Amino acid sequence: MELTLWAKTNGTLVNVLTVLLGSGLGVLIRGRLPGRMQRI
After folding, report:
1. Cα–Cα distance between 26 and 20 in angstroms, integer?
2. Which of 21, 24, 27, 33 could disulfide-link 37, Cβ–Cβ 3.0 to 4.6 Å?
3. This model's pTM is above 0.70
4. What is the pLDDT of residue 1?
5. pLDDT value of position 34
6. DSSP per residue over 1-40, as a string?
7. Superkingdom of this entry's organism (predicted)?
8. Buried b (16+ CB within 10 A) or exposed e, 6-34
9. What is the pLDDT of residues 3-35, one digit of tens each?
10. CA–CA gap between residue 40 and residue 29 (Å, rounded)
């Protein structure tokens, strides 16, 4: 059984998108967090 390119890279692409989304949200809300949490 031969896997398609999508089947081979599906999980990797989902992980990359999740990291990018989380990083983007972190940058956007960083200014709203208390100073103590920003230093962690």
Report:
1. 10
2. 33
3. no
4. 76
5. 78
6. -PPPHHHHHHHHHHHHHHHHHHHHHHHHHGGGS-HHHHT-
7. Bacteria
8. eeeeeeeeeeeeeeeeeeeeeeeeeeeee
9. 899 898 999 999 999 999 999 998 888 778 777
10. 14
Q: Token pair 């962690």 is at which residue?
A: 40
Contacts with 38 (C-beta within 8 Å, 6 or more apart), sequence order? 30
pLDDT at 40: 64
Q: What is the CA radius of gyration of the chain?
A: 17
